[in-house]
Amino acid sequence: MSTLEIDRVRKTYGNLEVLKEVSISIGTGDFLVLLGPSGCGKSTLLNMIAGLENISGGEVRIAGKVVNELSPKDRDIAMVFQSYALYPTMTVRQNIEFGMKIRGIPPAHREKAVRAAAELLQITHLLDRKPSQLSGGQRQRVAMGRAIVRQPKLFLFDEPLSNLDAKLRVDMRTEIKRLHARLGTTIVYVTHDQIEAMTLATRVAVMKGGVVQQLDEPQTVYDRPANVYVARFVGSPAMNIIPGKIEIEGGSATAVIEVANRQAARVSGINLSSQAASKYANRKVLIGIRPEMFSVGNGQTEGAVSVDVDVVEPTGPDTLAVFQLGGVEVTARLPPKQVSARTPATLSVDTSKVVLFDPDSEELIN
Amino acid sequence: MANALSQQTQIGDALLQKNRMRLGRLFIYCPLAVMAVLYLMPLWVMVVTSLKPLDEIYGGSFIGPPQTVTLDAWRAAWSQACIGTECTGLKPYFVNSLLMVIPAVVLSTGIGAINGYILTKWRFPGANFVFGLLLFGCFLPYQAILIPMARTLGLLGLAGSIPGLIFVHVAYGICFTTLFFRNYFVSLPDELTKAAMVDGAGFFRIFWSVILPTSIPIIVVSCIWQFTQIWNDFLFGVSFTSGGNSPITVALNNIVNVTTGRKQYNVDMAAAMIAAIPTLFVYIVAGRYFVRGLTAGAVKG
Fold this sequence. Notes:
The complex is a heterodimer. Chain A is of the alpha+beta class. Chain A has helices spanning 42-50, 92-102, 107-121, 136-148, 166-183, 194-200, 218-223, 228-233, 274-280; strands at 4-13, 16-26, 31-35, 57-62, 65-66, 77-80, 154-158, 186-191, 203-208, 211-216, 240-249, 252-257, 265-270, 284-289, 294-296, 304-314, 319-325, 328-334, 343-349, 355-357, 364-365. In chain A, a hairpin with a 2-residue loop joins strand 4 (57-62) and strand 5. Helix content of chain B is 74%, strand content 0%. Chain B starts with a helix and ends in a 6-residue tail after the last helix. Chain A binds chain B through residues 47, 50-52, 71-73, 77-79, 81-90, 98-99, 102-103, 131-132, 139, 146, and chain B through 189, 191-192, 194-201, 205, 209-210, 213-214, 299-301. Chain A: Pfam families: ABC_tran, OB_MalK.
């Protein structure tokens, strides 16, 4: 039993409201990622769960127990920090057993726990070294070892991979995922990297300005973003948000997009509830199309658009084509060598996945 | 032909440049040597005078090396010279100074370390203001507080005693030691304290086990600074102690200024050097940490 409930939690510094009634609830074994840009309040929220920051309002419950007034050591949590925060004068072994020492666990038990954690993380040969003699990845492992020996109800990770180089970051990401599968402990993980969120999480909370924008499974966040902000933040390259108009013909919705010097593009066969269809018929909307929803078509398929490709950026597995559509710059992810720069192309759109947003509220239209 | 010529000129140029460089070096080294001699002259005079018998000094030899080397003056300064009415030499006052300087250095460094720790890792509203006030203490002219401090010591019942002097030195040392430690701790990542808190460590545990072990360089800096300041202090010593409780600087002054008959130049010089030896010793033993500590920035984890 290690659930986490964040119930209408608020954080204020004087008159400045950093978190506005945040509510998140996850179950045992969940991997929650708090995703957002710097200053969105995600690290503050994590520190509040850890007990390193006061809670201005609302309740945090770990395994059903309110922990608002408990100090960090009594919350049954362990935390991994961005800078690893290893104690510089202690050896790896002393770093890992420091917490146990304070809790008065006998040396024999400590040694056993350190061994087990070190074997799990493959750092046994490093136990007598000082942190300054370790590489970034090794320090990261030691920091995780320090957390593991605690056997907490909740692991807290504060941007643990952002100090590593790109290659190591991917390796450690896999490592963390494997660790989670192995230990099954509930994890709260803060990051600004949407790929980390997508790959690691069982639940993602996208945050902006102290408000949770969406709390869902990563695939849902990707496929059905709750608003334009989430749509743009998750996915790389970002989702294209194109202004257009909705026309209803016989129960099927068609998005009409103005194209400069050409006939307007018509993307038909968009899923829309009858309620939404009647509300948005002949109205302006924002059309969300992910780059990979485009494909090279023959011009006859439904939802085909003719465009002038401006720039192509080959990435290896596929090529990004940039063009103008509906007055905005749009990126399509296409197979390599199918289109070239400064030439016209006809692209078809996978309409089943297209999403629509209200132009005023920027919320998803269901 | 033209080529050879240009090569020759090149060689000539190089030689000329080399000569010019030598000349430049000469211009640098000559004044430096002169300055060094000028600076070391008094020390030389002190050393040779202290090793001469008094008659030789009065015979007119002042700067020259001693004809007969004798340690009598050192012996006299250490254990026989008269200070006031007591002819005990500097020895008891040297002990006084040690009894004063060791607790004063330990206390002021310890308090400075805790202050710096609180001001950086346990910040409270108004922490910067408090730090500002402490900094103010660094610029305080000590003459200004002599009378209020004398009154305070009187009220505390510490007037004229070595504990009283320790109290004054600790009080006025804290501003410097706090400054040292705060600036050092500010570069330690806050996550270090947070990690220790999550590990279950409290205020003092974090201080002892995590913060202090990383602070050896700044502890050395603080100790050297405080030792030098307190050992060399004359103003507080002469104002707040009397007679047998005086520190060595006050006793030295008495040896030199209160003499009957011929002025014992050799004893004066030896006494002055005895008074200076501890600070020299501390600097030589721990000096390399001093420079390192002053320049050391963040502790890279």
